[in-house]
Every structure is written in structure tokens, then in C-alpha cells.
Task: structure prediction
Amino acid sequence: QVTLVESGGGVVQPGGSLRLSCVVSGITITDNLMGWFRQTPEKGREMVASVPVSGPPKYGDRVRGRVTSSRDNAKNTVYVQLYNLKPEDTAVYLCHMPAPKDGSGPYWGQGTQVTVSS
Result:
């Protein structure tokens, strides 16, 4: 069984930062593209970060310049760090494996809530 479990969300003040983690079980991330998305009822789902097996990540327009991402293949974990958070960054952040090389999936995590509020 494949699971993606996000953590690291919470309430943060505007201008603050958070690091989100996604621990993957049941499938290796080593040769798989990973992604981070966020979702709100008002705006739907949007891409935050696309973390390739190699090469530079890609970031969504609304977070570019305020986000970094990385992967630790040994821990089967993907990270995204958000900086200078704004109230409009409030959302559920979801981890995603869009196209596993073994032909299974795609897979989504349950999400972690990030709330930016003073």
C-alpha cells in the first residue's frame, strides 16, 4: 500500500516561514517526479512545486521567490519550505506523485493545513 503523509503545517504569522514534509511509503521516490499542491474552496487546487528526479524544481507563479523544495531519497521524503508567508497562502498543502514509473498511481497525500494569520 502506498501512502504519502504530509506534516509541518500549522498557524503562522504573516512574514513567517514553514517547512512541510512528505514521507512516502510503499514506493520509492528515487526515480519519480514529486509535487506539492495547495487547495482552497475558493481557488481550487494549484501547483506549488514540482520536484524532479534531477534538475531544478519548478514553482507556481504565486509562490515563486518565496519557496524552495528538496528531496531526501534515503528517507523517501520530499520537502517544501515557504517563506514570507501571506494570508493568501492559507490552504491545505498536498503531496503528489503524478506518474509513478511502475505504472501505478497517481498518488496523493491527505494534506496538511497551513493557516497564515496574525
